[in-house]
Structure formats: structure tokens, C-alpha cells
Amino acid sequence: MTSNNTQFMRSVYATKSLNRKRKRLPDNENDSTNQLYQHNNKRYKMEFKTNHLEKIVETNEEEEKIDKGNDIKCNINEEKKNEEINEENVWKKSRKVRRQFFCNNFPTLVITPVKGRMLLSASSLIRFMNIDSKYIRQKIKAHTHSENWRTLYVHLYKSVQNSELEEIASRFNEIHNKELAQNLPKDDNEMQFVTPKCCIFQKSYQEEVKKKRVEDVNNPNVNRYVLLKNINIRESEKEILDSLAEYKYNVQQIQRFKGLPIVKVLMPSAEEVKRILDDNNIFIGYRQVKCEIFDQNRRRPRKAFKQCRKCYGLNHIANDCNKKSICKYCGKMNHSSDQCKFKKSPKKHHCVLCKGNHRSDSLICPKTKDIRHKLGISFTRRENEIINKKTNQANSQNQNNNKSVIKFKTSPNKTPHFQNTDKQKLPPNQNNNHKKESKDKLGSTSNIRANKKDNTNNNSYTSYKNDEIASLRAEVANLKSTVEKLNIFIDKMIPLIEKNSKFGAINLSNDTPNYHFQYLYNHYWSETGRTGILCRRDIHSTKRSFYSHPYKFDMLGYESCWIEVSYPGQNKPLLFCSIYRNIQKHEVILQEDTKENKEDSIPFNNQAFYLCDFEKELSAAKKISDNIIIGGDWNAHHPAWLDKNVDKIGESILDFIIANNLHILNSYPFDCTYYKENSSSCIDVTLCSSSLAGLCCDWRTDDYELDAHSDHLPISFNILAQWAPQHIKRQKIVTWNLSSNGWELFRQYLSNNLKEWTNTLINTSQNSPDALDQAVESWSQYVVDTGKATIGQKVSWKGNKPWWSNKLHRLRKNVHQLKRKFRKYRTSENYERYKEAALSFKRILRCEKQMHITKSIESLHENNTKQMFCQFRSLNSNKIAIIPSLISPETDGVKYAIAETDIEKANLLANWFAQPPQPPKPSNENKEHYEYVEDEICSVVQMSKETELSEWYLMDAWYQSEITEEEVIEAIRHISAYKSQGPDNIHNLMLKNGGQSLINSLVLLFGWSYKIGYFPKAWKIANIVAIPKPDRDPTICKNYRPISLLSCVGKLMERIITMRLMKYLNENQMLHQCQAGFQSWHNTSELLLRLSESIHASFDKNGVTYAAMLDISSAYDSVWRDGLRYKMRNEFNLCGRLYWWIDSFLSERKGHVVINGTSSSIYNFNTGVPQGSSLSPLLFLLYINDISYEVHEPIQCGMFADDVALWTSIYTSNMTEMNHQLQLLQQSLDRISLWASKWKL
């Protein structure tokens, strides 16, 4: 059994290689094994046996010699093309090349008409010119002819001047005119011409002729023909004439172009031509007509058949192609068509469209024929001749290949051995029953053995003849069964082979995962979700609802979804509508019908489509913008949108389109948008308003490029605009591997590194701010290097769910490859492989999701609500930060600009965030106050800095002492492990797991900083992330909220200072009692209880409560820093190290905006308190603490940070008392307004 199997396998592979070399496999096998069998340089003789069957594979040395000869010829032709043309080798070139060379480099005379074939020699030319031979022979260098031999070019030497050329031309014309005038008798031996004329060759002659031709075309006095475009092909000439007569155009002649929406008309006068060209409101049928002048020199208009000369795909050209160039002969991408070695070997040509044995741009390609047939483009006479020639060659070759010859040798004692010279293709597999065919094979072999025994007993030719025929028949039957067996085996091997082929291979080199689809688009759905619209997140879009009803689809017969889209540089927004009509509604109710029957109480019709209600939605949308696009499934038939049938609903919808001045975008040849079984129709209609009719173009159905998984074909079209959304890039993020188990190793490494860092600080000055900055930078570098060496870093991609992995990415990529292969080759095997891969991917994805959710639930702890919310947030987070193109505001008369790239957006946002808020214009009194505060800070305060930073100043005050280890440990215990890291790339978990060595180094750094009253520069820089405000236009900078990411080490020290400052304020009771923000044991509930109690008390006493709510816009950014310093010195009595550390903390703040890993330039932030700092809220409370002193005593006040509430309750009905209370409330509001302008809020 093993020997038979090995022989059988050898026969399989030998037959497969033989058929591959001969290019005779069927198309489906040839395509799937295109990359498996390559060209073998060594070809040798092969023999194999299968159950008494012997075949001999002959060598292909002749084909190899032909290939080598073709390669040599191709190389020679390439050398010839690249060779420069000169006077020596010009005679080896073609007649056209010689003519162009001499005309460009030598003075030339042109003589026409002539019989050029009779003027090949120099003597015949001189005799024909009939000028002095001695004179003219010395002037002429050469002569050439045109392609039709009707024009003669006489090339003279370069020394010949223009005057001599004119003299020769004039003498030639005089001589031949005299001969014509004298009417000399004709001689049969001499050539006779019809008045040939001679002139000087001019290079600009063709350009002048073209220029004159264009002028004649554009001149209405000469050309009175006009082309009318965008006319329905079903409109007759009479209907067109009647429509033009309505616009008072008298047309003399009309001509249709067959199969095209173009008509040529002849106008009576030039004035009529100018009038029709200027008229843009001509409608014929339901389409707007475009008029242009007719150019008779242009080719006849034909439908566009586009084939790319780069990738040889259809429906596009090479300028718009983004793919790699492909050889049109062999279909490979590693060389150009001119360098192909199979250029002159038609047997090895390979079409990239149909995978046939011909060139990719061949006219016999069935794909090309099908597209041209759909477009209605017929082949020319020359193209038909080429097609017939090639088809005849292919038929004759197939006839020669189909001849099967079996040679056999007979002997009385041996069975005949056969040699099959058949080169026919193997038949496709049609029977998959393996057991049945194996039984047939065994039966055929038993018959052969029986015939052997009979043949040994016959020695004569006559007695052997009948047995020989029987053995031949048995052997042929055995041959057929063996071939079928081979086909079965090959079909089983193809799925295994294709795992390493083009479509089945998994690309392991690309480990970067892709982002999810839902993160790139905003989803908008109708009431029941039957229709919806997806809009990219980088385009500002909002949903509009003109008529919402939960049962609109069942009652009114349709469902719609409206969205409003705005983009930079537009005046009015775009409105998109997706509509879906209920196919079960067989009647239509228009607006006219409802008006007529409004007086009669007609019951609700449950079988009607209420088109009048959708018309109301359209009229409401027109009040917002005239730019409207409507598309969807109307389930209606009418030839207006290229459908073959007509129904009542289609006619009603057409009336609705005409009445509302809408335009149909459906265009030929895409006359089918719906496929089901063997039927097709066009029921998906796209409409646009008249303002967008000239901007919408290229409407088509992209069944090949887009995969909608529906019986409705996907539709796409373009809208011409000055702006287009940018390509959304994947966002790569490098973060620490915080889930690592290497924290113990991290502490050991960090302890050794910090010892080295401490030794470097021995000789440094402890009073220098520059030395502190260098120490902070070196300390951060030590910590970061230790983290990279121990816990490591990981790469994550924005836009993926937490359970998404590289394995899932590769599986999904394999599913997409199999899907594309099935759409290209629709076979049952490809479909089964695609469905199996898709089901496997869904199953693995579901398991990964369940495992992640299970682990998240198991990791939760009781009474830890914060962790629960963090786990829940992680399921919906990790979205892509998409910022659309931004508009810079107009400044100093400079027009706005559009920022499109990430660096432009980052710089624009950073510049906007760095701009201080503009306070109201100050009065003279406020200006004096500003100058007083600034002088107080600059002169008086700065003079006492050195004294207050000395060691002996306020030695008894506890807040002046150095920072202790207990304070650092307490601050580390309160920091969150889920906060983002800052510019120094140090995470809070690294601080929590750093150990005692890190705590000691922090005590040293923080004590040094507090001692000299200096906040290091590295901790002042912030990474700013721009987050769009909800329900705002994302193209405007002011609609973004800056989120600052500061250094975690700097925020740790800020927390220590915050605890000291809060303790100081609480001990001295300096914060007002009405302030409930950012204080322990205070929250918003306290203010709500106070306000609600006042309201309930006034209700009980039949009183009235008046309240006013205030909010400070851009509160943190509007803080006047000098004013804050003044209040800390005078109102809160802050001095010493605490004051000067806060003063350094507020000065020289910097930041840069980061978008998709791209950072802007660093900008200075000179106003406000830093965003993202734990100290900033408390400093803001100090700044607005005195606002409560501006409120009169009867008025109650409540504050939570920048939110202020004033209210008063009136329990009397006396009008004078009520007016008095209201005046006090108004006076309080006025005083708060004056206070805000005084302190620049």
C-alpha cells in the first residue's frame, strides 16, 4: 500500500507541474496556484506509473530557447530606445522619427501634393523640382515623406539662409505654374502632378491653425451649433423642440446622439446663441439643461470607459490611482511592462481582470466587453478586426491542442504501453464520491489483467486484433478514472496550499492593531432604528427632528432621520436625510388631497403613505438651510431614476420632486441598486436641492469597492467643496507596564541609583535655584531609566476595546482577505472558508470579551465604589481623540485661516489657551487701583524677600519649618494610582512603590525647594489636552476645554503645601463661612439645604423668596496674579517661605498642547492659576473670599467655588418693605459687579 501511495503522489505532483508548465490548468485552479509554481530553469525527463499506466513527460527545451531569444530581443529593443538620435543612426529609425529629426534641426521646404512613392531617390527629386541641378544639388541634405506619401519634405544644409529658402520656393512655384498654364502635353513616361506648391516649414504652424480653429468655434457668427447636455435619453426630438419653444427659442435643426443625454441644435442667429448660452434655467423634462458651444473638431461624445494604465483596473485613470504599477503582460508588480521578458510570449500572458491568457488591456477580455456593453460603447471597425484575428488564433490553437494521440506498441506476449501526447486541459472535478471512483478504478485494473492472460495465448495478428481493441478500451477507461481521481485529490489539496498563498496567508509582520469602526463615526438613528446616518467624528454634526412620532413607520408609511453638518468656510450647513418607505403601504396621500378633503372628516388610512407629512419636514428643513440631500429606499419605480417599471407611488414621488424643486442624482449606467435572486430594480433614489445640483457629481454604485452585506448596493457620490476631512490616523501610545510584577526589582535598582544621585549633590550649593533645577532633572532621569529597566513599557492603540489584542486583529484581517477572495471568485469552497473564518473570529472575540469582563468583576472589592466606576469607565473609554479642522479667529483685519494638520491645530489651540481673558474696560478709579497693587508687589514685597527666606525669620511658626518625612508619606498615601503622568514620564504608582530610598530623596528635594522659596521649572511645564465641549461647534477654538497634565512629583509637593495652607487658614478662621467649595466637611448639600429651608419657610408664612445665581466665566484663567499676591500679604498675612514658594509657583508657567502625539510650541501662561493643580482651587478661594463682604446684611449668600447664590425671603405684604428688600438685592449685585471689575474678573 505504501509503494502504491508513493507512486500515486509522484504522479499527482508530476502531472500538476506538467500542466502548470504548459499553462493548461482551468481558470479556477490556475488562479489559486498562481504563486505556488514558479518558472524552473532545469527541465528534465520524468516517468511515473499508476496501476499499469505509463506516461512520459517530454522536455520543453524549445520553449526555453524561445524565452531566451525573446529576452535578448527585448534587451536589444530597450538599448535602441534609449540610444540618442544623431545624423549617423537616424537612418536606422522609422520614417516618422527621421522626418521629425530633420525638421527640427535643419531648414526645410514643404511640397504638397505629390506622389511620394515615385520620389524615393535623390535624382528623381532633383528632376521633379526642375531647378538648376548644380545649384540645388549642393543645397539639399536629405528628403523625407509624410505617412500618406502626399507631402514631401526637402531638408537643406544649415548654412542655407531664409532668403535662399524663399528664392527656391518662389522659383519652384513659378516653374510649375508656368507648366500648368502652358498645358503641356502629357507624357506617359513622366509623372504628372496637380499644381504642387512649395513653402517654408514652420514649427508654429500647427499651433496657429489650432488657435484659429478655436476662435472660429467660439465665434457665434461662424458657429451656430449648441450642445444641450443632461437631457433624458427617453425625451423625443419633438418634446425637446416643444420645451425649447416654451423658452422662446426657435431651433432650425436638432440632432440626437444615440445612447447619450446630449442633443445638438442649430440656432438661427448669433444673438440666439449668446442668449441660450447665458441662460442657466432651462429645464427639459425634470432635468436642468447645461448649454455649451459645439466644437466640430472634437471627437464625437461618447460614454466614459476608463481603464487605468497603472494597475489596469476599471472605472478610474492612472492619475487617480494609489496602487502599485502592474505589468500588463504577466500581471506582476516587480517590473514595468517595457521590461517584461514575456512581452513576446503570448502563452505566458496573464490578465489581472479576468485571469485569462491575454494582456490586461486586451480587447478580448470578457470584463472589458461586459463594461463596454453596459455603457453602450461599440467597438470600431479596427477593434473588431483585432478581436476576430485573436479569437481565430485562439480557436485554431485549441483545435490543435484538443487532438489526443495515443501511440502504442504491440507484441504477442506483452500488454501494450501507451504514451499520451495529449496537451488538453484537465477537466474540472464534477464528482466528489471518492469511494465510488476507487471501486471503478479497481474494476478497470482487473479487466486489464484479464486481457493480459488472453493476449498471451494469441500469436497471430488476426486473433490479437479484437483483444487489443478491448484492452485499449479498458485502458482508456482506466485513464479517465485516474484523471478524475487526480482532480479530486487536487481539490482537496487546494485549501491546504492556499494557507500560504495570496489570500489565505496571515501577515505576521504587521502587529499594530486597527481601531474599531464605531469610534470613528457618530451614530444617528430614527425612532425605531430602521434607518440612520453615520457621520465622521471630525465633522461637526447634530441630529435634527422635524416630526418625531414613535409609530411613524406603521402609521405614516415612512421613517426619516435628519442631521445637520457644518464644516469650515461654509455659509450655510448641509442637511442630510435618510428615508425608508414602508413597502406595505400601497396608496399615497399628497398635500393637495388633504387640502381638498380637510373639511370632510375622512378616517385615517392605514394603507397609505403620507407623503404630505414628509413634505412638511422638507419645508421645515428649508428654513434652516437650502443645501439639502435626501437619500434612501423609496420602494418606488419610475424611469425618472432609471428604473424599468412605473407604479402609482413612483409617479406621486416624481410630482413631489418637481413641486419642491429637487434634482435626481441617479445617473446612467448605474441603473440597478437592488438585487434579489434573478430580479433587479432601481428603488434607491438620491435627491438634492437646486443649490447643490452643480456640486454633486460622480454618482455610482460601488458593489466591488464597498461591502454592505445587503441586497441593496452601496451608493456613493461626491460633493465639491473647498474643504475635505483629513485622514484619521491611528494613535500609538507608549505607557508603563504597571501590571508588571517587577516592583521589588524596581525598588532595588532605584535604591542604588538614588545613592549615586545623592553623592552628586555633595558639592552643590543649596541656595541656588539653577542647581535645584539640575537636581530635579537628574532625579527624574534616574527614576525613568530604572522604570524602563525593571517594569518596562508597553504599546497601546487608541480606539480599541480593552479585550482587543493582536491575535484578534490578525484573525479579522484574515476574514477580510477571504471575503475579498470570495467576492472575486464566487465558488462554494471560497464561501465555506470565508464563513468558517468569520464564525471562528466571532467565537474567539466573544470568549475574549467574556474573559475580560469576568476578570474585571473578580478583581472588584467590597465597599470600593471608585474601583467599580473605573472598571465600568474602561469599557467605554479609550476612544480616538479626533479634532476637526479648526478656524483661527480674525485678528487685526487678517482673515481667518484653517488649521488642518496636527501641528497647526496644536499651535492654534495653544495660542488660544495662552491668551488672557479680556476684562471689561476699567474706570479711572480701577486704573489707580491696578497701579497701586502692582507697585506694592514690585517694591515693598520684593525688598523683604531675602529677610523672610532667612532661617531665623519666624522660627516659632510651624508652617515655616522644613518638610518632614511624615508629610511626604501622608501625601503619597492620598495620591491616586489612576491619574495620568506628566511631561517627566513619572507615574504615581512609581511613587507609591518606590520604597524608603525614594521617600528620602523626595524629602531632600521638597525641603530644598521650600527652603529657598523656589518651585522648579520642570514641574511648571504642562501637557495640555484639548477636550471639546458637548453640543458645541468643534471647529472653533473657544469650544474646547484645556486639561493640563502636570508632573506627578510636582503635584505631590503641591499637596503638601495645600495641607499646610489649609491648616493655617482653618486655625485662623480666615475663609468665609458661606464658602463651601474645596473644604473638608463642606459640600453642595449644605447650600441646597440653606436655600430650600428659606423657600419652605417663606411658603409657610405666605412669603416670597427672590434669588439671583451668578457664575464667573473662565474663573481659573481670569485670576489676576498680582492681585492674588496682594491679598495673600494683606488679607491673609502670609509671609516667609510659604508666601515666596507660592509666588514662585504662580510665575513662569508654561505649557504645550498635544494632539495625537504631536506637540505644539511652548507658550507662556501669564494669567490665572494653573489648571490641574491641587493647590489652584484653594488659591482661587483666597482670591474671591472678600466677595461676600459686598453683600448687604439681610441678603443671604452662598458660594461653591465660582458659583455664587444671593437670595432673600420677604414675609410681609407691605410694598415699601418689599421694594426695600429688592433694592438691597440689586445693590448687592451692583457691588459685586464693581468688585469684579476692580479685581479683573
TrEMBL record:
Pfam families in alphabetical order: Exo_endo_phos_2, RVT_1
GO molecular function annotation: catalytic activity; nucleic acid binding; zinc ion binding
CDD domains from the UniProt entry: RT_nLTR_like
Top-rank taxon: Eukaryota
Biased composition range(s): Polar residues: 410-419
Annotated region (Disordered), positions in chain: 406-463
Span of domain Reverse transcriptase: 1008-1241
Protein name, per record: Reverse transcriptase domain-containing protein
Organism from which the protein derives: Reticulomyxa filosa
